[in-house]
Amino acid sequence: MMGAMLMVGGIGLVAALILGIASVTFAVKMDPREKAVLDQLPGANCGACGFAGCAAFAHELTTTPEVEMACPAVNKDGLKAISDILGRSLGAGDAMIAFVRCKGSPADTITRYSYVGPEDCRTAQIIAGGPKACQYGCLGLGSCVEACPFDAMHMGEDGLPHVNEDKCTGCGKCVDACPREIIALISRSANFGVRCISQDSPKEMRQYCKVGCIKCRICENTCPFEAIEVTQGNAASIDQEKCQKCGLCVSVCPTGVISSKQPSGKVQVIAEKCKGCGICAQVCPVDAISGKPKEPYVVDISKCIGCAMCIEKCPADAIERLAR
Amino acid sequence: MKDIFVSSSPHIHSEEDIPWIMRQVIYALIPGALVGMYFFGLPAAKVIVISVVSCMVIEAITQKFMGRAVTVSDGSAALTGLLLAMNLPAGSPWWLVVLGSLIAIVLGKQVYGGLGNNPFNPALVARVFLLISFPVQMTTWLQPRPFLLKVADTVSGATPLGALKTAVFEHGSIDIVGKLNLMDPFLGNIGGSLGEISAFALIIGGVYLIARRIISWHIPVFFIGTVALMTGIFWVINPNLYANPAFHILSGGLMLGAIFMATDMVTSPITNKGKIIFAVGCGVIAVVIRLWGGYPEGVSFAILIMNAFVPLINKMARQEKFGAGK
Amino acid sequence: MKTFKGGIHPPENKVLVKDNAIIELPLSKVFFVPTQQHLGAPAKPVVNTGATVKRGQVLTEPMGFVSAVVHAPTSGTVKEITKRVHPVTGLLAPYIIIEADGKDEWAPGLPLERDPFAMEAKELLNIIQLSGIVGMGGATFPTHVKLSPPKDKTIDTFIINGAECEPYLAADYRLMLEQPERIIDGARIVMKVLGLDSAIMAIEANKPDAIRLMQEKTPPEIKVEPMKVKYPQGAEKHLIDALTGREVPSGGLPMDVGALVHNAGTVAAIWDACALGIPLIERITSVTGRGINQPRNIKVRIGTPLKDVFEFCGGLNDAAKIIFGGPMMGIAQCCEDVPVMKGTSGILVLTEQETNLNSYRSCIACGRCLEACPMGLVPSMLSRLGERSMWKEALDYNLLDCVECGSCTYVCPANRPIVHFVKYLKTLQREAKAKGKGA
């Protein structure tokens, strides 16, 4: 009994000794900064940075001064922390987020046939072009959801994928997974997006989709900032840099294909500053402001769409946005 | 018009699906099981029923629990249960059989993702687990007593291979065992696991499977052939220490192993080339264990060890593609 | 009897339609003619909306050598040039829509009578190209390209493919029985173009009357060879292997081993073009399956809407799947709004019982697909890699050698859609190649 215990214990000791020596002699020398950088990265190894994984990217960041921050999942604080570690300032790219550019749930669209095969949009697409009659529409089999390394997407009850903005890092895996290029990365700060990429004419589209962009150009004509455009044959697209987040396009779109992340903040008139000039009432596109000349004007909150055109035009800086 | 379906070609399918294959293997096992019941009587029937039922129930529960589709009706669990029963002593207590079913289905199959994803033969995993954990119960053999003549009692006897091993250990020679009878293991009148005793019944099942194209002849023939060749060589060298090859072929779990366990589709190589490599490997390991190992029988271990090499064999032993240059 | 390694024996089901004589379909009111009915470069329309066209008039202009023209199936006016669903891709593709005037007037000078054997090989080849002839077995590869081997390749074996190994279909069989002269004379034209003095006609042994008739009618230089009944006996590469023992090298073409295979229907179309000046505007096809009330073999104009075909064949009954081609390699159609095309070797309407709509399971490594694969591949591995989109690894398993014959998928007891996965992997490989990312 004793002998056996000594034997096993002895083997354990010898093995431990060998391991201990090996870990010292064969240790891979790693820059401590590299380790610190790695701790700041998300560790999901999604590959969006273009490197083999978070560790590989941390190594590149530390050793090659030219490498810029390419990880979409690092937030402002993380970026600052990494800049501090490396002693060089890393430029923050515009944080991106995935956006699903199709609003055509099965209820609103025509399905041509029942697809039999692997439950994957990419395999469905190569057989007879996919079951959806619209060739630009979401197939709804969830390849993007499957591809998301951050669990930021899920299939909604409407049969379309939805993005959880808190979890989405803008890595773009879902963009690659979609065979129809329906998902795009847009600026995280963007508030509006067009949920359709169809290039079909309104006549064609009416045959199979109730909610797509019909290229009526009402949004284009309405937008006070020329930020939304319907170019030849394409669905409307928003220039996020020009967009002032007024939300007029959302309210005028006849098919409701333009979506907004959150309602724009409504406005109110600061009575003390108002000179009662009435310019605001003239520019308001929805007639939400009324009043008598030389007296403080009043905003009808129920009508206001938060487009902020009045703020821009007010000569007395007397209009402010309400908190959202 | 009704809904139209669209899928990739081809649009027709053979009627030979997984349940059909499982049914064929079960049919092929029936002769062996009947012989077991004939010689070991009611206890054998009890083991078979408990094993099959518990495997099916455990599979259903596990699949439900793991959120998978319940596929008990495909016959795969029933087949595992039957194979497990064939690999147990006929007098096994009920708890041993249920434990074996649990190991086979849960540890042997479902943890890997279910049918098709298991690297090891589930029934053998269970058998070896039980053999190591419960050596007494797993080597308590019922004396074969033809069913109609006299109901078997719990008198225990040794298997021919066991007797051989004991003789070698204790006397350094097999002469003490006496003349080795070949007719008894051929028909099944020997001690051993429930389903392994009759080479004849198992061969009938094997021929049926080959004729039905469920298994190819490669694994049984090369497995048994390797055993015959190796034991033959040593028998020629020293007939006092090593039994003759005919005895080795007919006794123990070789027939059951070579025809039914090693040929399990999931855990054997897919190409014929690979099957030959696999079978020869099984044969060599089985003989090494039989002749020089601590256990009298090595077929189960041999198959499990070779199971581990299947992915490697599949990678290496490919069939030649059309137009590769001729 | 000659054959190849691998393959399968699906139930033939040819009895549904094989004894029905070819009937001509009445002229439709509107024809939908896709501009692309061939493999290769597109062809662009040369007629405008409102133009009057005559039967046999050229409608398109090929954009490249590997391309084919299409012709007006009847006389009438071009109603519209627009995009509609294409039967092969299921996507929108350009169509020329012709409203028939019911007069069915030939283009000037057609049909003519001339002796093709008095013409030069070059001239014949030119006629074949201008007649828009493509492989009518379903592959639709332009015939003139196959007949123009590069200088360093010589063709010494010409095989007329009458195997028709796809279950259900019997169009080639009827053609061989009813119009053997068209095939034989067409074959003689091909021999003349290639400068050959012999040819082999391969017919599966399940058509003994066709074999007997052909043996009677063929001149001594055309040898009729009965083939073992096995799928895919009619696949180009396997037919060559079975008849000559030569294996087309991986990634190569039949001409690499000096062989050329043409479908019986294609050869008949060559005869029409060379002797009568009639371009490819109609074909013979089997309308069959248990989902159609009256299975028939029909002579039908290219561009005829499927609805008219179904109406002529007594309508549908419990149809679950509509397939262009045979059940093994045919293409499932998304809707009834598609027309008959040059490559439509069969129109198959299957009921739910006949087809296979079940879901699939994990591979159980039974090895049946390896036995069935006529190309000697490991289909089970390809399907596993397909599930994981691993096309690079699949190249190691000879992804690109797969001919998508469907034998593996037919026998798979786990019902795995192996061909579907192979198509998917090939798509990924093509896309990556187009992007220039590696292999």
Keywords summarizing the entry:
heterotrimer, B: 326 residues, mainly alpha, two-stranded antiparallel sheet, 14 helices, 3 strands, 2% strand, globular, C: 439 residues, alpha/beta, six-stranded mixed sheet, four-stranded antiparallel sheet, 13 helices, 16 strands, 27% helix
Overview of this protein structure:
The complex is a heterotrimer of chains A (324), B (326) and C (439). Chain A is 29% helix and 12% strand. Chain A contains twelve helices and 13 strands. Chain A has helices at 2-25, 32-40, 54-63, 76-86, 121-125, 143-147, 173-177, 202-206, 218-222, 248-252, 279-283, 309-313, and strands at 96-100, 114-116, 153-155, 161-163, 183-187, 192-194, 228-229, 237-238, 258-260, 267-269, 289-290, 298-299, 319-321. In chain A, the strands form six sheets. Chain A has a two-stranded antiparallel sheet with strand order 1-5. In chain A, strand 7 (228-229) and strand 8 (237-238) form a beta hairpin. In chain A, helix 2 packs across helix 3. By secondary structure, chain B is mostly helical. Chain B contains 14 helices and three strands. In chain B, helix 1 packs antiparallel against helix 9 and helix 5 (122-133) packs antiparallel against helix 14. By secondary structure, chain C is an alpha/beta fold. Chain C starts with 21 loop residues before the first strand and ends with a helix. The chains are: A alpha+beta (324), B mainly alpha (326), C alpha/beta (439). Chains in contact: A-B, A-C, B-C. At the B-C interface, strand 1 and helix 1 of B face strand 14, strand 15, helix 12 and helix 13 of C.
